[in-house]
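Hey, quick one: can you model this chain's 3D structure?
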Amino acid sequence: MGQSTNLILYFTDAATGRKYWLSAWHRDDYNPRSGGLGFKHDAPAGELYELTTNKNKGGFPNLKSARKLT
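Sure thing. Here's the predicted structure for all 70 residues.
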């Protein structure tokens, strides 16, 4: 078992219905890399969020930023 803990976040694209998953890491306080919305306490399930992602060196999605839509 590794030293790092993470939250697995599951999202559905509201426009297409396509499903995605991303990780939020303990070392980043479960926030996107750029800070902001914390997924451990500030992001209830079922809400709408705007996510910004890119791909890491391995080609996997990397959560850069997130904000709750009103």
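One thing worth noting: The mean pLDDT is 86.
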